[in-house]
Design goal:
Blueprint lengths: L1 H53 L13 H10 L3 E6 L4 E4 L14 H7 L5 E6 L6 E10 L5 E10 H4 L1 H47 L13 H37 L3 E5 L5 E4 L1 H7 L18 H13 L3 E8 L3 E12 L6 E9 L1 H36 L6 H32 L7 E5 H18 L3 E5 L5 E5 H17 L6 E9 L2 E8 L6 H4 L11 H6 L6 H11 L3 E7 L3 E9 L11
Parallel strand pairs: 12-14
Antiparallel strand pairs: 1-2, 1-5, 3-4, 4-5, 6-7, 6-10, 8-9, 9-10, 11-13, 14-15, 15-17, 16-17
This protein binds adenosine-5'-diphosphate (ADP).
Length: 598
């Protein structure tokens, strides 16, 4: 903008300079000319006056010197140079030079003009006698008979004649100088007044093009420029709010994508990863954020998924398939590959959506296995009941001792059957969420005492000790029946799998936001290799021993289900022949999260 201002200034200076020069040149010429004319006319009228005084004062050319006193008198009165020349060009008198040394004047243009019959002859030239630029005017001097006897000439220095004009020109020059200065000052002022706001507008538009939308026009100038500034402010305001909206939407979209339970990955036309969400990282078991801009082939090693992606690129149609990913452990995903138009026209980008259905499939398998296992488990007591009753009917009931022994076995088997059916029913009710939760603040010790009462007889038979350690009088928000079921199953197992004279201790304590209920026994323990499986349905370490102990293999499945349903978790610590510790962690304050669960 400074350049523009300089250019405008220079332009004005040059234009003004040229016009001033032309104006000065013309006006000085006009002034000089007019001065000369005016002074020339004055000189001529003076000459004519002198001529009228001297004309007819002598009779002939021979007496010409008689006019000299009159001329000298006139010369004394005026400052102009008076010259008297005879018809041969000889100077008879000159008021400003010595006539004796003056050359012949016959060839002087003003003399020639008079000799040629003109009343007034004029000329301006450098005088050879006084050596200055002079204006000459000459007229004939007549005798009494009207004959020309000589030539009277008046002359004046041109400098004197144009003296006033010079002053005028000087004044003009000063005036023009001041005008030029004012022009420079005003031009500078106007260019600043217009230039600065325009410079500001230029900077604002530059900032806007670099996405700095908070910038605003603040100068004040002519209203046209201010209007332009206001329009730019409106534009900046609109852009700012639009950009905020876009950012807001972008943020929402990112939040949405980041919280989706489906893995999302966007691939560009070059098969490079443009975007991923956290679930995609989890699903593929890799941090894909470091792979943005890399080919998807670097991270997706599944042949099936790659094939599906390539098919989507090729056919430009949605592709869907269930695919097994063999990562650290097998993952089953429902893959949807959605083609979308790319940023460059005619290209295709892809949205890869992977829904991890491993858990769903696992549950499905668990369910089918459960049905198979349940039928199998139920068949054992039923077969026993059927076999014993058939044997009895076949005649064995005649023998009273056998009858009693068989009936006892049948009673035991039917009790087991009853237990198993009860457990199966409870599990299925839990899974179908048929059991209503009634959460209330409970003292854990009271529940443990209820459980001990139930198991008292069994423990006494094995001469076992049941103990409670609860120095803090632990309280928690929980469903009473569910907590009782958890403790019953754990303490029941502890009693079952601990030999005579053993002990079972239930210890309660507070941990930060949780409550820990520890069930410890000094029984047979669980081998390390089996520990990961004992929460599975119908899983038993030693089937015969479990059956003898009246177990169904469902107790710990129910415990695990209930604990997780109460937003807690369970941990196992056991050593063969030393004992087992089950630690149940439950939140102090229950928060209903069932709706949040998948
Ligand atoms: P069960 O009805 O057979 O006891 P559970 O699901 O309750 O079934 O337990 C699964 C298996 O875990 C049991 O069969 C048993 O082998 C083992 N187990 C559970 N609790 C204990 C414990 N306190 N000590 C030793 N083994 C245990």
């Amino acid at each position: 903008m400074k350049q523009l201002r300089g250019r405008i200034l220079l332009f004005f200076l040059v234009v003004f300079g040229i016009f001033s020069f032309i104006f000065f040149y013309i006006s000085s010429n006009v002034f000089v000319q007019q001065g000369l004319e005016q002074q020339g006319e004055d000189l001529e009228s003076q000459l004519v006056t002198l001529q009228s005084q001297l004309n007819g004062t002598v009779d002939s050319q021979d007496d010409i010197e008689e006019v000299l006193p009159g001329i000298e008198k006139a010369a004394a009165a005026i400052s102009e140079r008076i010259t008297l020349i005879d018809l041969t060009g000889n100077v008879i008198y000159d008021s400003h030079a010595d006539q004796n040394v003056i050359e012949n004047h016959l060839d002087r243009p003003e003399i020639q003009a008079v000799l040629n019959g003109e009343m007034i002859g004029t000329y301006d030239r450098i005088s050879t006698s006084t050596e200055d630029l002079r204006y000459y005017t000459a007229t004939p001097l007549l005798d009494t008979s009207g004959e020309t006897i000589g030539i009277l000439r008046l002359s004046k220095r041109v400098e004197e004649m144009t003296g006033v004009t010079d002053e005028l020109l000087r004044f003009l020059l000063v005036f023009m100088g001041i005008s030029l200065l004012l022009t420079v000052l005003f031009t500078y002022y106007w260019t600043r007044r217009i230039g600065d706001p325009i410079e500001e507008i230029k900077q604002i538009t530059h900032k806007l093009s670099h996405q700095k939308y908070s910038t605003r026009y603040r100068s004040t100038s002519y209203h046209e420029i201010d209007d332009l500034g206001q329009t730019i402010n409106d534009l900046a305001g609109n852009l700012e709010s639009q950009m905020q909206e876009i950012k807001q939407n972008d943020k929402r979209m990112k939040e949405l994508i980041n919280h989706l339970v489906i893995g999302v990955m966007v691939l560009n036309e070059n098969r490079e990863i443009e975007m991923v969400n956290p679930i995609m990282n989890e699903t593929l078991g890799e941090n894909l954020y470091g792979k943005i801009g890399h080919s998807y082939l670097e991270v997706i090693k599944s042949y099936g998924l790659n094939q599906l992606i390539e098919a989507a690129f090729e056919k430009k149609r949605l592709q869907n398939r269930e695919i097994s990913l063999f990562l650290q452990d097998e993952r089953i995903v429902d893959a949807n590959i959605v083609p979308i138009p790319g940023r460059i026209q005619g290209t295709t980008n892809l949205i890869v959506l992977l829904y991890d259905i491993t858990e769903i499939r696992r549950l499905e398998t668990v369910r089918t296995d459960f049905v198979a296992n349940a039928s199998h488990e139920l068949r054992t007591p039923i077969t026993a009941l059927k076999g014993f009753s058939e044997t009895l009917l076949d005649g064995a009931m005649e023998d009273r001792e056998v009858l009693i022994e068989f009936l006892e076995i049948m009673l035991k088997e039917s009790s087991r059957l009853d237990l198993m059916v009860q457990d199966i029913l409870q599990l299925s009710k839990l899974e179908q969420k048929q059991i209503r939760m009634n959460v209330e603040s409970i003292e854990a010790k009271a529940v443990v005492k209820e459980v001990f009462q139930i198991l008292q007889q069994k423990a006494e038979l094995k001469k076992m000790e049941l103990r409670i350690i609860d120095p803090k009088h632990v309280q928690l928000e929980v469903d009473h029946d569910q907590l009782k079921q958890i403790i019953l199953n754990l303490v029941g197992n502890a009693v079952s799998y601990t030999p005579e004279y053993g002990e079972v201790v239930v210890e309660m304590s507070y941990l930060d936001q949780e409550v820990m209920i520890k069930v410890r026994d000094n029984g047979i323990g669980i081998p390390q290799s089996e520990q990961s499986r004992i929460f599975e349905r119908f899983y038993r370490v030693d089937k015969a021993r479990s059956r003898n102990a009246g177990g169904t293999g469902l107790g710990l499945s129910i415990v695990k289900y209930l604990v997780e349903n109460l937003n807690g978790h369970i941990e196992l610590n056991s050593e063969v022949d030393k004992g087992t510790i089950f630690e149940v962690y439950l939140p102090k304050v229950f928060e209903n999260r069932t709706n949040l669960k998948r």
